[in-house]
Write a structure and sequence with these properties.
The structure holds 2 protein chains of 2 kinds. By secondary structure, chain A is mainly alpha-helical. In chain A, 70% of the residues lie in helices and 1% in strands. In chain A, strands 1-2 form a two-stranded parallel ribbon. In chain A, helix 7 (147-162) packs antiparallel against helix 8 and helix 15 (286-303) packs antiparallel against helix 16. Chain A is globular and about 65 Å long. A two-stranded parallel ribbon of chain B has the order 1-2. The chains are: A mainly alpha, B mainly alpha.
Chain lengths: 388, 405
């Protein structure tokens, strides 16, 4: 063996782990960088974000006192800041989402290390690999969405709740909700945790509306009316009456003209309630609870009306993590991620895929997730003697 | 039973394998001869009419030396030497083209024969196909590869030369398993001198370098050395040095598409080059980094079969995730995966069959101009790739005892 080979082997043996993580992080940035420049005129960037940032550029921070766009106040503050940065707007928007993706990745690292008992390197690898999921880089860099922001806070909240830090957890959930209304899908799980863990003070839930109210203050200070500030999400909810909007969920099987809103909401909550009741008596560790959190979000996405693609984002990220827990969730995770990716591509690239076919595969993935989540119940039903 | 009947049945019983081998070989030769004159069935767009014949006509016009002094076509020098030579003969070009490709088809068969003998006689892994390893049985098994539809159509109908670099790569892997690393890399150099795709096997050798620690990084230099030597005929005929050795650079810059009649992952609709071109390369490198991490961390000894499986996967990953991939670019991994499936791993029969079928569809488009549903094929192709990937990397967790090559 030559000296060169010996040296190379020594370097590889000593530094390969660090190098691998650094290289993967670099690759994750390079993937996104290639998409930063996409400024689809027909996409959310061209239709919404770019004009909003332009308005903030014209009005300055005083723009916060007006109704610009339909996001709640914290993201509008970010847009107002971006309007004054010396970088191209599209670059800044995507970069902000990427920074929160890194934060989201870090939360996954902490969760993987603490609750899945992975080594530091393995946990870091799991965390970094989340940045290569198509729903992440397509969502943040191509689409310039901010799902990573609320997901970061949602994951931080869940981690705090599981670590017996209820106040911090609820503050984080409140922050998640202040960025995107979809964070509300986590709330049923938080209610379940309240009854399950029995160490979450009920008053800690008040942090959620409290943080929400505090987040609205910048706009009120700049002169926006209280009702229009705090009613931002009501406008969002009333803006469409379709059962399903480019999402491969349960309602993509029904004709879109039908208005089954009340039935859909009741169905969703019934399923959530049934799932929680079945599992309540069974022992659940943190991995099981995270799987349940993922199932909660995906159930909401599956059965609530007016769901867009991307609304299952935090559920998909949690499912990705849980798939590493030895829970045989890989098939489910793969199906849900692949179908979600196709719905993203359908919108971003103006393609036409058969949504009902995709919905079948998505539903299959959801059934597998549900089955895995209910496995303690199924096991007890099969072996009642052991259960008793 | 009459004496003649006893004679016939005894003859067949004692020499069944040899008879089968001769019959199958004869059959494979007859099929090739039958197809020599077929080119496009119905307004197809094969390279024979659109590329090879025009190039041969230019070599006819300029002669051997003057022809090689110019840049004709986009192959590297060795295949151009062959084209220049046959241009000087007074025969229809399809004959020597098919004969050369067919010779390498049989070199593939010979490589399969040698690999089978090496792997089966090492007692390292039990093959479900051969309960008792006999030389004559291995010969029959090997010659079946000359009858694979993809192999016949590629060399005889399509008149392509994918069998040339594939044969060299298989021999390279054979010598790798024999631990004759210099010879192994010389064969890679030869493969690279015929087709750029040979480089798709490099990631495998990089992983093997760090995992086995049994050969030097200097062995990699055989590749550029052979490449430089292979270019000498053109330089001796007067072609400029830079122009000679940059043929592949011009080849890669000539095509700008996320996919070209090959249902890679991008065929589901990711056709915007400016966005997805960089993504393709980064995604590919990411997959190799992950494979590297996984294999280096695994403490399991890697069997010879697993090494071959890994080689096929590395090549296949390049074809699946790189842009500008044509039909036929998965020729080598399909051959190797078919070998692995038949001789060792029947669990992958479905994905390997899917690869063969999809390959047939893409060949059919060129030969017969029928329309393909690329997104659908891409979905199936990716599913097959995923199946194979999960199967391969699951082996690194396997408890089955295995030995290194």
């Amino acid at each position: 063996m030559s000296i060169i080979d010996k040296k190379l082997y020594q370097l590889a043996d000593k530094y390969w782990k660090h190098l691998a993580i650094i290289v993967l992080l670099l690759f994750s940035f390079l993937i996104r960088r290639s998409m930063f420049k996409v400024q689809g005129a027909a996409l959310d960037w061209g239709v919404y974000l770019a004009p909003w940032i332009q308005e903030y550029r014209t009005l300055g921070f005083k723009g916060l006192g007006q109704i610009i766009g339909d996001y709640y106040i914290p993201y509008n503050v970010i847009l107002a800041i971006i309007a004054h940065l010396p970088l191209p707007d599209y670059y800044s928007v995507a970069l902000v989402s990427y920074l929160f993706e890194l934060g989201m990745s870090f939360e996954l690292y902490l969760l993987a290390k603490k609750y899945f008992h992975y080594s530091s390197f393995s946990a870091a690898l799991i965390a970094v690999l989340v940045l290569f999921l198509p729903v992440t880089f397509l969502g943040s860099s191509y689409w310039k969405q901010c799902d990573s922001i609320y997901t970061f806070f949602a994951l931080a909240g869940l981690r705090s709740l599981l670590s017996d830090k209820p106040h911090k957890g609820m503050i984080m959930i409140g922050l998640a909700l202040s960025f995107k209304l979809q964070a509300i899908f986590i709330l049923p799980f938080c209610c379940y945790l309240y009854f399950k863990k029995r160490n979450i003070p009920v008053l800690s839930f008040l942090w959620i509306p409290g943080v929400f109210l505090l987040s609205g203050l910048p706009a009120i200070l700049f002169g926006r009316s209280v009702t229009s500030t705090y009613g931002a999400y009501l406008t969002q909810v009333h803006s469409s009456r379709f059962m399903s909007i480019n999402s491969a969920n349960f309602w993509s099987f029904v004709p879109q003209g039908l208005d089954l809103y009340p039935a859909a909401i009741i169905l969703c909550f019934s399923l959530l309630f049934a799932g929680y009741i079945f599992l309540y008596q069974h022992r659940q560790d943190e991995k099981d609870l995270l799987t349940l959190a993922s199932w909660t979000v995906i159930t909401c996405f599956m059965f609530l009306p007016a769901m867009h693609e991307r609304y299952d984002y935090v559920g998909l990220i949690l499912l990705y993590l849980c798939a590493f827990g030895g829970h045989h969730l890989w098939v489910s995770a793969l199906l849900l991620h692949l179908i979600s990716m196709l719905t993203y591509l359908q919108y971003l690239l103006e393609l036409t895929y058969p949504i009902p076919v995709m919905a079948c595969f998505y539903f299959l993935g959801y059934i597998l997730l549900t089955r895995k989540m209910l496995s303690p119940v199924i096991s007890d039903l099969r072996h009642p003697d052991e259960a008793s | 039973m009459k004496k003649i009947d006893r004679l016939l049945t005894t003859l067949v019983e004692q020499h069944l394998s040899s008879i089968a081998f001769l019959f199958l070989t004869l059959l494979s030769i007859v099929i090739r001869l039958k197809f020599i004159h077929f080119v496009d069935f119905n307004d197809g767009i094969t390279d024979y009419n659109t590329a090879l014949i025009p190039w041969i006509n230019i070599y006819k016009e300029f002669g051997f030396v003057n022809g090689l002094a110019q840049e004709i076509g986009d192959y590297y020098i060795p295949y151009n030497v062959f084209l220049a030579a046959i241009a000087q003969l007074n025969i229809e070009p399809c004959y020597p083209i098919v004969i050369l490709s067919s010779i390498f088809d049989y070199l593939i068969v010979f490589a399969v024969y040698k690999l089978s003998g090496l792997l089966l006689n090492s007692d390292s892994v039990h093959s479900p196909l051969f309960s008792v390893v006999k030389n004559s049985d291995i010969k029959c098994f090997a010659v079946v590869f000359s009858l694979l539809p993809m192999v016949i159509v590629n060399s005889s109908v399509f008149k392509q030369c994918d069998s040339i670099y594939t044969a060299f790569l298989l021999w390279s892997l054979y010598f790798f398993l024999c631990k004759r690393y210099s010879v192994s890399f010389i064969f890679i150099g030869l493969a690279f001198s015929f087709k750029l795709q040979a480089l798709f096997l490099l990631p495998f050798f990089i992983i093997a370098y760090f995992r086995t620690k049994e050969f030097s990084i200097t062995h990699f230099f055989w590749i550029p050395i052979i490449f430089v030597l292979a270019g000498l005929p053109a330089i001796l005929c007067g072609r400029p040095i830079l122009e000679t050795y940059t043929v592949y650079l011009r080849q890669t810059s000539a095509y700008h598409s996320m996919f070209m009649n090959f249902p890679s992952i991008y065929a589901i609709g990711m056709t915007e080059q400016k966005v997805f071109f960089p993504l393709a390369f980064i995604l590919l490198m990411t997959l190799f980094v992950l494979a590297f991490i996984y294999i280096i961390r695994s403490k399991k000894e890697i069997s010879a079969f697993t090494w071959l499986y890994l080689a096929a996967w590395c090549f296949h990953t390049c074809v699946e995730f790189l842009p500008n991939m044509h039909e036929r670019y998965d020729y080598f991994p399909i051959i190797l995966l078919t070998f692995i499936m038949l001789i060792w791993r029947k669990q992958i029969i479905i994905p390997v069959c899917i690869l063969h079928l999809i390959s047939a569809c893409t060949y059919g488009k060129c030969l017969n101009e029928f329309q393909l549903n690329y997104p659908l094929l891409s979905g199936f192709y990716f599913a097959a790739y995923l199946w194979l990937s999960l199967d391969l990397f699951g082996l690194f967790k396997s408890e089955t005892p295995s030995v290194s090559p």
